[in-house]
Write a structure and sequence with these properties.
Blueprint (H helix, E strand, L loop, with lengths): L9 H23 L3 H36 L7 H40 L9 H46 L13 E3 L14 E3 H8 L2 H73 L1
Antiparallel strand pairs: 1-2
Helix pairs in contact: 2-3, 2-6, 3-6, 4-5, 4-6
């Protein structure tokens, strides 16, 4: 006995094709509503803030250890430095938490404005409150961008200090031919940078002592961490500028969408009035004939 062949109904195949096509179109529609510019800016913002906060926190701990071990013998000389480092670490916690929430809010605002612009005649309608919120985000992002420019400049200061120390160590380890200063007279004084007071002892490191500091793991790790933190601050500035351009464009789109909505409402109202007038006239003519 041969097994019976299964037969398929053409109508069932047509329904399956329609369902698969509908799912594909739904996926395309969903992907078309994703604000990719806001998504890229959010990822860049999260990455920059994470690098700045994480690397900056660890680097500050290493700086405190280097100062206590090599530049300040009296505990009273580095009390202020310890307090400032602790305050900056707490500020880093707050900055990380704030920008995590702010990035999510801006991404959600990007989803809202994209849907509102692309579906003006659908369920989404732009409101005065929504436009005010978009304008507020533009202003707030502008202020945060200016603030992070200052943070970026401030984060370059420790990189500059560490680079001077590293350059001095390179000069000691590989002195140039035209060097006229003795090796032991090549020094780095951290008191001139305001890290510790002028009466701190010893306050500076020279010659072989400076070479020992540069060869420690704390110095090498903190130097690279400060570079990464500075790069993270720069990435955050770029992300905020990106956000500012996106928010400004979305706000302009919402403003145009509002005008379009007003125009469509007036047009619909006029068409309805014309229809009512024609209907009343036709009714009057019918009554006159009868």
């Amino acid at each position: 006995m041969k097994p019976a062949l299964e037969t398929t109904n053409p109508e069932d195949n047509h329904e399956l094709n329609q369902e698969s096509k509908g799912c594909f179109e739904c996926c395309i529609k969903c992907l078309g509503g994703v604000p990719y510019a806001s998504l890229v800016a959010t990822i860049l913002c999260f990455s920059g803030v994470a690098l700045f906060c994480g690397c900056g926190h660890v680097a500050l701990t290493k700086v405190e250890r280097i100062v206590l071990m090599y530049f300040s013998n009296n505990p009273s000389d580095h009390v202020l430095l310890t307090d400032v480092i602790q305050i900056m670490q707490y500020v880093i916690y707050g900055v990380a938490s704030f920008f995590f929430l702010y990035g999510i809010i801006l991404l959600a605002e990007g989803f809202y404005t994209s849907s509102a612009v692309k579906e003006i005649h659908g369920e989404f309608k732009t409101t005065l409150c929504g436009r005010c919120i978009s304008g507020m985000f533009v202003f707030l992002t502008y202020l945060l961008g200016i603030a992070w420019l200052g943070v970026f400049g401030f984060s370059a200061v420790p990189v500059f200090i560490y680079y001077n120390m590293w350059s001095a160590c390179q000069t000691i380890s590989s002195p140039p031919m035209n060097l006229t200063t003795a090796i032991e007279e090549i020094c780095v004084d951290v008191r001139q940078f305001g890290i510790i007071p002028w009466n701190a002892s010893p306050g500076r490191a020279c010659g072989s002592d400076l070479t020992i500091i540069c060869n420690t793991s704390e110095f090498d790790l903190s130097y690279h961490l400060f570079i990464v933190a500075c790069a993270g601050a720069g990435a955050t500035v770029i992300a905020l500028i990106h956000f500012l351009m996106i928010l400004s464009a979305n706000w302009a789109y919402l403003k145009d969408a509002c005008k379009m909505q007003i125009y469509q409402d007036l047009k619909t109202k006029e068409e309805q009035e014309l229809h009512d007038i024609h209907a009343s006239r036709s009714k009057e003519r019918l009554n006159s004939y009868t």
